[in-house]
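pasting for ref
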Amino acid sequence: MKGKIRRINHFLFLAMIIVYISGCTGQQDQSANDSNDTTIVKVNTNNSIDQTVANQAKEKIIKEEQVSAVKAVNTDKELLMAIKVDQFHRFQLKKIKKNVKTDVEKAYPDYKVLVSTDQKIYWELEQLEEQLQKDKTKKKTLKKEFNNIKNLMKEKA
């Protein structure tokens, strides 16, 4: 009787160890896939709204290790950017935001640069980029949406 109980205990102990080890390896694979999600979408339009400045700024900023994603839209003289920062670097948001802004201002001195780390601004810029990509936006509509996002940024500050 004692022999059977001892075997059952050993079997249960080994089964728990196997379940624990297999559970730990699954989490490592998932976190490795999450960290490689640093792609940017270049906005190409067929109409007169030129987004090359925003695309070049996105390419420049995504190379920084703290930034995981960037969205940007520009008008004739203004550039709006929203950045996502890695979780570990969220304690340095102000510093990262300031560095991004100065880097972009140096690269494009003719543009007024506005940078945000707010998630809502990121989503709004993402939607505006999608509209521009689909060529559903005219210059007048772009300026209206652009000003709406700028006002949201002012409210958050």
